[in-house]
Amino acid sequence: MATLYARAAGDSIEKLADDPSCARALAWIDTSAVWVTDQQIHLTEIPAPEFKEAPRAEYLKKIFEAAGLKVQLDKLGNVIAERPGSDANSVILLAAHLDTVFPAGTDVRVKRHSNRLTAPGVADNGAGLAALAGVARALSESRIQTTKTIVLAGDVGEEGEGNLRGIRALVETYASRLAAVIAVDGASTEHITTQGVASHRFEIAVTGPGGHSWSDFGAPNPITALSRGIVKFSAQPVPDDPRSSYNFGMIEGGTSINSIPSRAAVKVDLRSEDEAEVNKMERALRDAMQSGAREEMSAAHDGQNTLRLIVRSLGSRPAGKLPDNAPLLETLRNVDRFLGNRSRLERSSTDANIPLALNIPAVSLGGGGKGGGSHTTAEWYDATGRELGLKRLFLATVALAGVQP
Ligand SMILES: [Zn+2]
Question: From the CA of 158, how far away is ligand 1's center (Å)?
């Protein structure tokens, strides 16, 4: 694994910012927040539901090309821009996910009231993608020569059932050359996500004989079976430490109000800071759903033993943690000190999970500005102060990549 040789000491960020090439980039950021916001609006208004990121990827490719970068699309649809350093064997990867949680057909037009933008996906990950575009341009304005190679990537499959397939492929491609990975996700400058939360996702389906609501009354009902299981699982406590969570996020089944359904299914997301806890929750979930189905069958007047439970994995994200004394974290803290930015360490489930699980130094950072209502159609972004987020990402990238005299 490539190592981060020089720890960026506090004053080294100051020296870096004084370097004429860096100063050019920082000056560009000061005058170009409007351009970055325009890119954000354009990117957000190109729908990018899971597995349908291609049109948005195409636009990001154009932005990278306009910044003078060599760009390619890999077979999954990741957009990859490389900015070669003097050492091709050492890579700093900045990745922002292209996809959103919103299905095709969602109105993604951005409503704008001065600095405040409202649209599904405008912050997650419109803000991250726009920041990546800003860093690409700032690097090009700087004409800086770095030691390590900088790779900027828009990746597919972070949300929903994508199972982090985009970042998995990027990490596989660059493998031992990766010195550090920064996942740029959402807005804000207030956090450094150093811990990846583990998650397991499932679809649990129950099938049965179905029937007429009146004439077959008493036959086991898959919706009722699922409901019994959900109630059983939800009645069990979830630990605060390690912090853990679950969500029954989607439920479907049945064909009409007066038919006993022959199938029902629910999608569940289990998360914990500790992988062992997720495994424990998974066992408890399977037991609860089994027991719910059994209870429904034994309550049935006829058609007993005709329910089937089918558990399908929709993906799993490994846990991982950046050590508190990691040079990457020290560099970020020095950048924050230089910029007068206060940040706290956070845990989350992001693209950074994958490198962290492989002990590759990684964090997730926001793209600057403020945002909220993530994963809802009321999602918003406020571009006020976005320059801070851009400078933070730019300086961190350049400090990690090392400047050639
Ligand atoms: Zn995101």
Answer: 7
Question: What's the gap in Å between 90 CA and the centre of ligand 1?
Answer: 26
Alpha carbon 202 to chain centroid, angstroms: 18
Task: Name the nearest CA neighbour of 91 among 105, 102, 79, 80.
Answer: 80
d(CA 56, CA 72) in angstroms, rounded, equals: 14
Same-domain check for residues 297 and 383? no
Please tell me the total count of domains within the chain.
2
Whose structure tokens read 């845990």? 347
**CA–centroid distance, residue 131 to ligand 1 (Å):** 13
159 C-alpha to ligand 1 centroid (Å): 7
Is 305 in the same domain as 346? Answer: no
Among candidate residues 124, 35, 23, the one with its CA nearest the CA of residue 386:
35
Domain that holds residue 43: 10-197+319-401
Sheet containing 380-382: which strands, arranged edge to edge? 111-113, 116-118, 380-382, 370-372
| Contact between residue 206 and residue 309 where contact means Cβ atoms under 8 Å apart | yes
Distance (Å) from CA 226 to ligand 1 centroid: 30
> Tens of pLDDT along 307-337?
999 999 999 999 999 999 999 999 999 999 9
In a domain, residue 4? The reply is no
Separation in Å, CA 23 to CA 28, 31, 246, 390 = 9, 13, 47, 13
Ligand 1 midpoint to CA 96 (Å): 8
Nearest-angstrom CA–CA distance, 61 and 63: 5
Distance (Å) from CA 206 to ligand 1 centroid: 31
Q: How far apart are CA 155 and CA 80, in angstroms?
A: 8
50/174 same-domain check? yes
In the predicted model, is pLDDT for residue 199 greater than 90?
A: yes
| Confidence at 305, pLDDT banded by 50, 70, 90 | confident
Ligand 1 centroid–CA 233 distance in Å is: 28
Tokens standing for residue 357: 């699980």
